[in-house]
Design goal:
Layout: H1 2-20, H2 31-36, H3 50-58, E1 71-78, H4 79-95, E2 99-106, H5 110-116, E3 123-125, H6 131-141, E4 146-160, H7 170-177, E5 206-209, H8 215-223, E6 235-236, H9 240-248, E7 253-258, E8 266-268, E9 271-272, E10 278-279, H10 283-287, E11 294-301, H11 313-320, H12 323-331, H13 339-353
Parallel strand pairs: 1-2, 5-6, 5-7
Antiparallel strand pairs: 3-11, 4-7, 4-8, 4-11, 9-10
Helix pairs in contact: 1-4, 5-6, 11-13
């Protein structure tokens, strides 16, 4: 009961902080092609399938606690990845009651400055650091920050569950969300222009999205709009849950947010991948990077070369990259890493902590 209450409190705190922060298109696919390529849209974090169970139970090393760990971890960063940190922190505190965690969720742009200024031990990020952020850090410290992948994720394209649009391309999304159309397509302002007929043909499209300071906004702008500008009609909200709630209440709406926020009242739309086939944001498609808006969630730390990472933050990362840590990642809707990516992170972590890890970390 105590752990449940703690989880609720952390979730509420994060929600409060996030709320205050931070003509038919040519080349379309026929109905037969869409049916043939119909993608699985099951909630990706519900790792009950054979692949998810195998990855979690057989591919990852179990966690081995250390004795006498104490101290404080300050985490300041992006709300999406901070959600993962907060959930893992509940179990980490059970193992290490003498470790205090101070967790703050904010806009994506806040984390890199907190790391640069030494105000945070860990900086959760929903995107990789930009070259400018890395350069600023390197100019001050003489070495780059260390980025550890801690979960996989996808920017899902949500519509209200009754919306019949079968799939979309990145070009169509650019036509829907952008006022500059750098991908060279046409402006799409009604669902008829996106290929729907009947009562949907003249229905205007309502747009939901993030603030410019949010990592999801930045990723979407670069990967979908090709660096172009959003429409001025974009309804900007403070977090993914609010965006999905807005879409759920509006049959004509479309929005983008982490797949973590999916719910029964909305539907993630399959997208056309680089090979022209349709991919839903499932765990398998995200891990394989076939879903075009796949991404990683990161934790960034300040680690001088040749020196161990100080304090208990390194042990938190080691727990997060263990079998138990990734099970927590998967439990409520995030996508756990595949074993190879966990190996990569733990090898980097071995250098952070000064520990000697074996070349391969498959569980025995």
């Amino acid at each position: 009961m105590t752990r449940l209450l703690l989880m609720v409190v952390i979730a509420l705190v994060c929600d409060v902080v996030m709320g205050s922060a931070v003509p038919p298109v040519s080349g379309g696919r026929g109905a037969s092609d869409q049916a043939a390529d119909k993608a699985d849209t099951a909630r990706p974090g519900a790792e009950g399938d054979a692949d998810g169970t195998r990855v979690l139970s057989d591919g990852l090393p179990p966690y081995e606690p250390v004795a006498g760990l104490s101290g404080k971890i300050i985490s300041i960063g992006d709300s999406t990845t901070t959600n993962v940190v907060a959930r893992v922190a509940t179990e980490f505190r059970r193992i290490y009651p003498d470790v205090t965690l101070q967790i703050t969720a904010s806009l994506t742009s806040i984390g890199p400055s907190a790391l640069l200024e030494g105000r945070a031990d860990m900086v959760p990020m929903s995107r990789a650091l930009t070259p400018e952020e890395v350069q600023g850090f390197t100019s001050k410290y003489g070495y780059p920050p260390t980025e550890i992948k801690v979960a996989a994720d996808a920017l899902a394209i949500y519509v209200e569950k009754r919306n019949p649009v079968p799939s979309l391309t990145l070009g169509q999304l650019d036509g829907i969300f952008s006022r500059t159309q750098r991908r060279g397509g046409s402006s799409i302002e009604t669902w008829g222009q996106a290929g729907l007929t009947g009562e949907w043909a003249d229905r205007p499209i309502t747009l939901y999205g993030y603030r410019p300071e949010n990592g999801a906004h930045q990723i979407f702008q670069q990967q979908v709009l090709d660096g172009g500008q959003f429409r001025l009609s974009l309804l900007v909200l403070g977090g993914g849950s609010l965006i999905v709630q807005g879409v759920a209440a509006d049959p004509g709406a479309i929005g983008y947010a982490s797949i973590f926020f999916t719910c029964k009242r909305v539907r993630p739309v399959p997208l056309s991948g680089a090979d022209g086939r349709l991919y839903a944001p499932t765990a398998e498609n995200v891990r394989s990077r076939k879903y075009p808006l796949s991404r990683f969630l990161y934790i960034c730390v300040n680690k001088p070369p040749g020196q161990p990472l100080g304090g208990p933050a390194a042990e938190f990362l080691r727990f997060l990259l263990s079998r138990e840590g990734q099970q927590i990642v998967a439990a409520d809707g995030n996508i756990p890493l595949d074993a190879a990516t966990v190996d990569e992170g733990r090898q980097a972590l071995a250098q952070l902590t000064g520990q000697d890890e074996p070349p391969t970390l498959r569980a025995k």
